[in-house]
Amino acid sequence: MHRNGFALAAAMMVLALLSVLGAAAIQSTTLEVKISAHDRDARTALYVAQAALEEARYYAARSWGKISSPTLVTPGTATVSLATPLPPGLTWGSGLYTGFALVDRLGTRYPVLDNSGPASPSVLLDTTGRPEPEAGPFVLVREIPAGDAAWDGARLVVADAAWATASGVDSWAGWTLWNADGDAFRVSASAVDLVATPAEVELSVSTDPSPGPYTLTTNPWVAALAGGLALPGDADADPAAWDRTFSDAGGAPLGTASVTAVSTAPGTYRITATGTTGTDWGRVEMQVKRAGWRSQTVGDWKVADEI
Prior knowledge:
By secondary structure, the chain is an alpha+beta fold. It contains three helices and 19 strands. The protein folds into three domains: 48-63 and 230-303; 64-141, Beta Barrel (Elongation Factor Tu (Ef-tu), domain 3); 145-219.
């Protein structure tokens, strides 16, 4: 009986030891699986952030419109077809851009004589004393003399009868207003007052944009993001960030990314993309610079290496 009792006790001790070892092995394996999953999610989050940054790089490099080869109409004029995003609800053949200038990629300015004709994007330019416009990036510009504009505490009121007659409600919402110091202000809304003498265009911006003179331009993609403008394709239309969702080839979700832009100097922006997968995240950044910001000429957007 004594030996049998000893054998039973020994067997129970062995079983207990094996249970402990088994539990430790299971715990170790579980921990390794968690570490592996965490590492996988962390890498995936970084890849998602990099993918979003690549999209941002693409749009930043192409945020200016393009012009086709010009078609000469009469001596001193030319018609060019354009490809540029317009604010929602705005039709092209509206004559809105009479009095604007088109700036080509070399910085040459061409007064817009008319754009009320074809529904397809095209403008009639004054080319007197200027070379033919260069195909490539361009921007539409409206110069606003300081003497024609006044801040009323909520809006920049521009006394310009011809411009007011051509403008409609919110024609300039989403555009960018630049002051004489090169600071950018997003136009959140616009209105016209045809009763005033002379008639006025009212541009709603967040704060007093002084000093003038001012320049109104189509939105560079990065400046729009930095200014809090929700961008096309945004997953949730949050104006503070450009949100993206990514899936694998089979459609399974990989993660989400949030892209933000901050102006660090006139014409210079830091773009940050933060990817999230599960509880893990990864972040990458880059700088974007616009050449010729002070004179509002258009140069290439230059994307620096990731920083």
